[in-house]
Structure formats: C-alpha cells, structure tokens
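Appendix B, record 7
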Amino acid sequence: MSKKITFILLLILGVAFWGISFPVTKLSIGSFSQSTFLFYRFAVAALAITLIFFKNLRSISLSSVKAGVTLALPLAFGIHFQTLGLVKHTSASECSFIAGMSVVLVPLLKLVLYKTKIDLKTWLAGFVALSGLFVISITKEITFSTANLYVLTGTLGFAFYLIKVEYLARERNIVSSLIPMFWTVAFIMLVISLFDSTANWFPVKNEFWLGIIYCGLFSTAYVYSVSNISQNYISAEKVALIYLFEPVFAAIASFFIMNEGFSLRLVVGGSLILAATVLSEIKFRKIDLE
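Structure tokens (predicted):
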C-alpha cells in the first residue's frame, strides 16, 4: 500500500473522530463558553503532541516556530469564527454546508493567489462532493445572516490554512512545526477567553471535561497532525474533499449517541461524497483523436 493511500485512510479515520466530536462537543459545551472549551481542547492537544514528539524538541528551530505560528493563525481564525457562528446563531446543518465550501474555495484561492493550474477533474470532484453535502445538510432555503457570515469567514480561514500547510510541507519537515502550531493556537484561544465575559474556567460538569479529553486527543491532536503530515502526499484540494465526510460520521455518531434520526438524504449525500473522492483519485488517460 502506497504512503498516499495510507494517509488517505488515516485522514478518513481522523474525519470520523471529527464527526463523532460534533455530538460530544454539543453535549460538553451546553451553556458554557465555547472560548474556554476551545482553549482547553487545544491545550490538551498541544500537551499530547509535545509528549508524542518529545524527541523532536531539539530539532525545533526559529524557522520551525515561524512555520508553526504561520499555520496557527488561519487555523485559530477558522475555528473561532466557525464555532462562534454555530454555537451562537446558525444551525448545525447550515454551518456544515458553508464549512464544506472549502472544497471549492481551496482550488479557487490557489488559482487566484498562486496562479496554480487546477485540472477539470478536481473542480468536478469538488462540486459533486459539495452537492452531496448539500443533500445531507440543507432541508430548507439558506438565509443570509450574521451567523452564516461568521461561518463563511471561518471557512476562508480553513482554506488558507490547508493551502499554507501544502506549501510548507513541500519546503520543510512539517512535523517540527506541529508543537509550536498547537501551543500558538492554545495561546490565541486563551487570549480570546480572557476577553470573554461568559468564560467559565472550572465547570463542574463531567461531560465538559470528558469532551475536552476526547476532542483534544482525537479530533484535534490526531486529526491536525495526520492532516498536516499527509499533505506531503495529498493536495490541499483532496484534504478538503475528505473533510466533507465529517457530517456523514457526525450523523452516524448522533444516531448512536443522541438517538437522532437516520435518513435517506444521508445515504444519498454520503454516496456522492464517496463518489467524488474516488473520482479525484482516478487517472484518466488522454484520448488520441488522430
């Protein structure tokens, strides 16, 4: 099995962790501040990554720190605004769809900002996957709101983050930037929490801390580490495509954890996303018309 396929499978597993984290986060935050939840989540992730890659501490240079900070800024930006839009205002389904727009924003931004040539297959796979996400997420007309603008702003942050990871992965060993990246995001979330009048630093609810542990270890430390390393072998467009499996896994997890319904829309939409992922991996041969 090639390294590319191995990392695609590892990334899909990570997206499954991400999907499961949706009902876990919903149960954990409750009426608590999302800013403190995000701070604890990334602090746990940063500590875990530091312990896992402890031997790499000596190899962390000033350039590694700069790379980590460069990645942390759009990542923290994206997570903060998407969570703000979801928790404060918009529905989970609309948030999921708008967040999934990164699958077309990534190639669009690469084309506009970096003049990167994007092949037709990538565009086609992106729109097929977005159609699948639309089938899953949208049951009524999307209305323009401040909440949706927050989520779209966060999605732009994620798109920039994925593109930046791809370019840094080509230039350097991306592993050395993981520790400073996670600690920088944790610090940014700490600063945001200090200015949050609703922040609750020591909730007594057990579900809150169990959610912190799960999200910190699996849907943060694992997902973003595997995602960053995988971009040595997978383009930012394909990573964004694989991310679209999140609502499928979220719906499955919600079915088992929160007894929510399981619909035909999920099957159809999930099949379209799977088809788009397969399409992105097919190598078409050029037809000689002469």
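Remarks on this record: The mean pLDDT is 79. The longest helix spans residues 3-29.
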